[in-house]
Amino acid sequence: MDNKYIELFQLIEDILIKQEAQKMRGLNDYNMVNVVRKASHEVGMHSNVIYSLINPNGLHYQNDLFLNLFIEKVLNIRLKDFGKVLEVNVEEQTNKNRRIDFTIKSENYLIGIEMKVNARDLKNQIFDYFESLQKELNEQKICMYYLTKDGKDASQASTKGIDIERISFQEHILDWLNACQNEVKNITNLNVALEDYKNIVKKVTNKYKGNVVSIEEELLKSNKHLKNALLLDKKMNHIKGKVLNRFFEDIEISLGKEFTSVTKEVGNVDKDRVFDEKKCINLYSKTKYKPKHFGVFFDCKFFNNLYLSIELHVGHLYYGLVKLKNFKLIPLTDNDRELFKGISSEKNTRYVKKITNTLSDENILDFGNSKLKDEIVQFIHQVKENQK
User: Fold this and answer.
1) pLDDT grade, residue 348 (50/70/90)?
2) Longest dimension (CA), the chain
3) Of 12, 124, 231, 302, which has the highest C-beta tally within 10 A?
4) What pLDDT was estimated at residue 225?
């Protein structure tokens, strides 16, 4: 093996050892808020958290502290100019049955904030919000803000040409959260909650760095190792294909000791249906026409022309039952599917159970000694038992 790759693999192994040592010392990336909601969830995550902070009557009991900082850091308006706050709302309904993400109303301003994390703009959306606020106008100034991950502009179809202020999570919201933390740094639970939300914002803006050392960070420190990793990356699709091919070969050998492989016979009838190295490699290559389904087949002495199949189908690995007549696939009957009961089933399909798709999983790398093999053998015996 090339020395440059040996050195690279040693570096990665050292990083993995360091990761485990750090975890043993208590370093972690646990975030309770993120457990409850996905980082990119607009309403369930960001609307709820931001509103809980800017609401003067929130359970943080800091009155308008976080709201005032929001006005200054995010809206970029001086407090003395903003005037007395009259209302702070989340998901306020308009006369056109739409909901403005946030509204903040004062003696001098009517603020509307439309937030987009991953969702697309809707036709006339921001313009409709603007019109809704206009109906409440009483000498105040209307300002529409567009909050996105990176401060991108709203579409013309949404604004219909009205002026908007662009604000971002990666700059304005993070600055605001830092300012909030600075004010409550001695209040432990608030400080922790703000830190958790800051980390979520960093995740959606791709700025998050975990507490545990990462392979990516370590590779970026050395151009030499980075270059070797990039060279290796060019070969990875080919390697992945060979790993998948070896997985199917291992199945043939391991299960073939107890059951009769009919993979070759199925291939004689439909060559696209069975695995080979070329198909496995093409699955991970940039070729336009990727194989959709292939695998291995076994005669396990089931009744009614049923056979065991372990196949890759549209990017996922499954094991289960197929029905073959002269080694050609025919549809399963309802009676055949009754055999799935008490085992596990994928509804309305010949497959019984999805297998991990992670090539680094031990079930893939060492099928002969894996829990997956034991599980499939148990499944075969259960099917036989159900056929009695």
Assistant:
1) very low
2) 85
3) 302
4) 65
* Phi and psi, residue 167, nearest 5°: -130, 160
d(CA 55, CA 104): 10
Sign of the torsion angle spanned by Cα atoms 45, 46, 51, 54: positive
Strands, sheet with 141-148, edge to edge from the N-terminal-most edge strand: 85-93, 99-106, 109-115, 141-148, 165-168
For 351-376, b/e burial (b = at least 16 CB within 10 A) is: bbbebeeeeeeebbeebeebebbeeb
CA-based radius of gyration for the chain: 29
Assign 178 to helix, strand or coil: helix
Other C-beta atoms within 10 Å of 383: how many? 21
Q: Which of 301, 297, 323 is nearest to 310 (CA)?
A: 297
The CA distance from 320 to 307, in Å, is: 8
- Strands 85-93, 99-106: pairing is antiparallel
Contact 115, 102 (CB under 8 A): yes
With residue 152 as reference, give the H or E element that holds it: none
**Mean pLDDT calculated for residue range 134-143:** 90
To which H or E segment does residue 133 belong? helix 125-134
**How sure is the predictor about 112, in pLDDT bands with cuts at 50, 70 and 90?**
very high
Cα angle value 225/227/230 (rounded, 5°): 110
- CA 207 and chain centroid, separation: 16
Q: Which one-letter DSSP state was computed for residue 312?
A: E
Cα within 13 Å of Cα(131), Cβ side: 14
Pair of tokens at residue 88: 């702070």
CB of 173 within 8 A of CB of 74?
yes
Residue 55: both structure tokens together: 């609401």
pLDDT at 69: 96
Average pLDDT of 334-361? 67
149-153, 223-227, 249-253: range with highest mean pLDDT: 249-253
